[in-house]
What does this fold into?
Amino acid sequence: MMERQDVARAVIYTPLMLYQFYLSWRYYNNLDMAWVTNLGWLVLWVSAIFGWLPMYEFKKKGGVPENQSYVNTSKLVKTGVYSIVRHPQFLAGVLICLGMMLISQHPYSVVAGIIASIVYASEVGPADKRLIEKFGEPYREYMEKVPALNFVTGIIRRLKN
It folds into this structure.
């Protein structure tokens, strides 16, 4: 069940992201810098990976009861995408905002994207708190080993191990 703060954040970032989608369509490659637009598309593809893999990972390894949503995990998942970042879907939201900024190259998209990204990132703390309550000390240990959103650090750490 969503808490009041979660609903408030969704009420902020959802319209901002929709606005960014509109601006990306309306002002596609606004500054005529194709390489920036192409980078934006690459960022969107990366966001898709971080956005979709958690559904597969949780269903496969999270102890999700049959016919239940992937969010109904009973086991702490620390493999796959979760060995790189703790909150891949929040990261996907931030990357979508960044991708839209790069694709549109419009100042309003940059402002909307920064605000939406901050709101997405602000969900990490409350989510970690809920997961500590659910999984206890094993989640605290996991937090020490895996970054919340920094996938570059997560990949480097994973490659070292």
